[in-house]
Amino acid sequence: MTTSLTINGTRHQVDLPEDVPLLWVLRDEIGLTGTKFGCGVAACGACTVHIDGEAVRSCQIALADVWGDVTTIEGLGAPDNLGMLQQAWIEHQVAQCGYCQSGQIMQAAALLAENPTPTDADIDDAMQGNLCRCGTYTRIRAAIKTASAKMKEA
Amino acid sequence: MASIGKIARRTFLIGSAAIVGGVAFGVYKVRQPAPNPLQPAEGEAALNPFVLIDRQGITLISPRAEMGQGVHTTWAALIAEELDVTLSDVRVLHGPAAKAYYNSAMVADALPNKGYDITDFQHTVGEALGVLGKLANLQVTGGSTSMKDGFIRMREAGATARETLKQAAANRLNLSRDQLKTENGHVIAPDGTRLAYTDLAVEAASIDPPEVTLRDARDWRLLGNTQPRVDMLAKSTGTAEFGIDVRLPGMKFAALRINPHLGGAMDGFDASKAETMPGVEKIVDLGTGVAVIARNTWLAQKAANAIDIAWGASPHPADSAAIFDRIAEAFETKANSTMRDEGDVSALPEGAVTLDAEYKVPYLAHATMEPMNATALYTGDALDIWCGNQSPTFQRATCADLAGLDEDAVSIHTTFMGGGFGRRGELDFAAYATRVALQMQGTPVQLTWSREEDMTHDFYRPGAMARFRGAVKDGSALMLDGQVAGQSAAQQALNRWVGLPAAGPDKVHVDGAFNQPFAIPNYRIRGHLADLDIPVGFWRSVGASFNGFFHDTFIDEMANAAGRDPLDFRLELVRAEHAPSAKVLETVRDMAGWTGQTPEGVGRGVGFTYSFGTPVAQVIEVVDENGTIRIAKAWIACDVGIALDRGNLEAQMVGGMVYGLSAACFEEITFADGAVQQVNFPDYEAIRMHTAPITEVAILETNAHMGGAGEPGTPPAMPALGNALFDLTGTRARELPFSRSFDLLI
C-alpha cells in the first residue's frame, strides 16, 4: 500500500502497511532519526512531532491516519539555521543526555505557536507529558521563557 | 610519598606517532607510522591517542561515555586547557575500546577507607594503585570518577602536545622553544608570526615529546568556568547520534522477547503466525528468547508479540513478599562487612533515650529514556558493534567470545547514550545484538528493545532493608548501630564483567551509611548480604541510593528524639568530623533561610549524604494544596573540591536530585510469578515538569580532594523529602516510595 506524506515540506511516498505508526516511518523508512522512540504508548513525549502545527505523539498515529503536513525536529531548524527555540535551548544549555529534547522542543514550539506568552502554569500544563530522566525541567522552562521574550521582540 | 605519585604518573607515558598528514599524542611511546592510530593494522603499534592533529583539524578523544553528565566537554576542556585550543574549534570523539583508556580513579575508590578521612598519603597510594585499572582493562564510566581520573593525565596529554608543537615551530624558525607562545591552536613567535598546529603536525610527529609542567590553577582559562557543551548543538537539533539512530547501508531492524519470568528457560515457541506477517525477514531462536528481524522496528515488534512462547518458571522467589522475607533473613546471618565500628554500641549511660527503626526500599529500574539497543555487523572474520555503553572493553570481550573471534577482530563504536545511570555498563544489549547478527552474516542488524522488554529485563537497583538503633542524651547523639540487608550489586556486576567470584566485604553495599562524617562516639555499621540472585546492578549512586535514605532519615529521627532542630543537630555532629560537610550544611541553611519554623501547610526537611567524595546537603520544601502535597522548592549545597565546570556541576546536582526524587515519590519494581509487574512509564512514574521543584544550587571548593558530580546529588533527595513530609504531616514514612503513604501531586 503506497501512502503519500509531506514531511518538512518534502513529499514522500512510502509502501508500507497502513497501521505502521508515523514514528517508525520517520525513523526507519525515511531516516529522520531526530524523532525518538521512548515508550510506544504516548507516555513520554520523546516522539512528539507536529501535524499541521499540532503537537502529536507520532508513536500513536498510524500511517493511514496522518491528516496533514508533518514537521519534525529537523524541520524546525538545522545546526546552521537554528529556530528560535533551539537557540534558547543552546543559550540555557538545556540538554544532558539529550534524548528527550527533540520531543521537548517540538512540544514547546506548539505551545508558543498557540500561546506566545505562557505562564508557569501554562508551561506545566503543556509540558507535563514530556518526560526527562536527566531532570532538565528548570532549564527547559527558562528556555521557553527566553524564546517567548525573543518572539515578542521580533 | 612523592615518589609513589611519580611512579603512578610514569605509568602514563605520553608518546607521539606520525599519522598520515599529522601527529597523534597517546600513551605509548612509539615511532612506527600508523595510518589510523585508532585501528592499527597488523605490525603497527597500537597507539591510543587523546590528541590527533592533521591538516583537517584537531580531534580530542574522550573515552568516557557521554550519557548526559557532560563528560565529553569537561574531559576535552582538561586537554584544551593545556593545549591552548578553543573547544568549539575541535572535534571530540568517544574513541574505541582500548586498554590505554582504563579508569584509574575507580580502582582507587575501592580502597577500604571512608573517603572523607583520607590523608594525602592514602590519596597518593590510591593514585598509584590506579594503574591496576589498566591491568583489569577497566575502561568504565561510572562511580562519578571521570574527573578524578582525567584531571592530571589529560592536562599532561594537552601540555605534552603543546610543547611538542612548539618544538616543531622552534625548529622551523630557528628559535628556542621557550621563546614561543601558544594561543587558540597556533604557535606564536616573538615577531607575531602565527603557525597553526595543523600546519606543524607533520613535523611534530618526528620530535620526542618533552617533559612538561602543568599550569597553575590561577592561570586556567577554561577550567573553573562554565563551558558551552560540545554536544549541545547536536542535541538541540535532533542530529546527535544515539545508538538507536545508527543507520548503515542495507541495515535490518530487530525486536526481542526474553522470558519475563526472570532467569527462566524457554520451553518452546510457535512463530508460524509471525513468519507470515508483513516485513518479517527472519525469526531467530536465541535459546532463552526469540528475535524477529524485519524491515522496520515496529513490524519486528508486532511480529515478536505474535509469537506464542512457552516460558519456563523463574528460579527466584515468586513475589515481592517472598523476596523481602529473604532480605529480612539476611539480618540473622553473619555480617558480610563491619566497615565502621567505633566505641561500644552496647554500653549506654543512664538517662539515654533509645530509638529503633526499620526501613525498606524497593527494587528500581533505570528506565533510561533511550531503551536498550545495539547494532551489530558480523562478516565472518570481524564483528562491529555500535551502541552507547559505559564499559566498551568488557563489551568487546563478551561479544568476541560469543562470535568466536579474537578481541582484535571486534570493534566497539560508542555513540551518545540516551541516559545511562549505570544500566549501560551492562553487557546484555550488545550480546543479544551480536547473537542476532551472527545469524545474519554480512547484514547489519539493529536490535531495539521495546520499553516493556527494557523495564522487565533490567539489572535492578537492589531492594534493601535497614535496622537502626540509636541513643541520644542531652540533645546529642551517643550511639548509632545500623544494619543494612540486601543483594550485592557489586559482586554480581563484577562477576558479569570479569568473572570475579564473590568474595570479601562489600564496601559498596554499605556506601552512604558507614562513611558518613558524623562524630558519634559509639558507631557501628554492618552489611548483610541476602541470599538472592535477582539481576541487580549499579543504579545512579549505587549503595548510597538506599543507605543515604536509611542513615539520614535515622539521623532526623534521632534529632527529633533529642528535641533538637534537625539541621543544628546534624551540624554539631558533622563539624567535629569533616569541615567541608559542615560548610555545605551551613550554606544550605543560609540559602533556604532555614529557621526551623514553617507556616501552616508548609513543611521543610534537610537531607545530607557524603558520597563519591562529595558532601551534599539539600533542603526540600513541600506544600499542602487542598490535601495534595507538592514539592515546591529545593536548595542544594555541595563541595566538589575543585569545580571544573560550574554550569555543568549545577546541572548534575539538580538532575541527580530529580532522579532521587522520582525514586522517593513514585518508583517501585515489584514481582509476581518471578516477573516484574511494571512494564512501561504509566506504571513507573517519575518527576515531570509540573512536579519538579524550583531549585537553587551552591558549589563549594573547600574539600581537600576532588569529588564526583554525577551521583552525589541523588542520595540526599530521598531523606530530605521524607524529612520534609514528616515536618508537614507528623507522619514518619520508613518505606519508599512515599506515594504509598502520602497523597503526592502526580
UniProtKB/TrEMBL annotation, chain A:
Keywords: 2Fe-2S, Iron, Iron-sulfur, Metal-binding, Oxidoreductase. The keyword Iron-sulfur applies. Transmembrane segments: none annotated. Residues 1-76 form the 2Fe-2S ferredoxin-type domain. It comes from the Bacteria. One of its GO terms (molecular function) is oxidoreductase activity. CDD domains: fer2. The keyword Kinase does not apply. This is (2Fe-2S)-binding protein. The lineage of its organism: Bacteria, Pseudomonadati, Pseudomonadota, Alphaproteobacteria, Rhodobacterales.
UniProtKB/TrEMBL annotation, chain B:
The chain crosses the membrane at residues 12-30. The lineage of its organism: Bacteria, Pseudomonadati, Pseudomonadota, Alphaproteobacteria, Rhodobacterales. Coiled coil: none annotated. Gene3D superfamilies: Aldehyde oxidase/xanthine dehydrogenase, a/b hammerhead (3.90.1170.50), Aldehyde oxidase/xanthine dehydrogenase, molybdopterin binding domain (3.30.365.10). GO terms for molecular function: oxidoreductase activity. It holds the Pfam family MoCoBD_1. Keywords: Membrane, Transmembrane, Transmembrane helix. Residues 237-315 form the Aldehyde oxidase/xanthine dehydrogenase a/b hammerhead domain. It comes from Sedimentitalea arenosa. This is Xanthine dehydrogenase family protein molybdopterin-binding subunit. InterPro entries: Ald_Oxase/Xan_DH_a/b, Ald_Oxase/Xan_DH_a/b_sf, AldOxase/xan_DH_MoCoBD1, AldOxase/xan_DH_MoCoBD2, AldOxase/xan_DH_Mopterin-bd_sf, N-heterocyclic_Hydroxylase, OxRdtase_Mopterin-bd_su_IorB, TAT_signal.
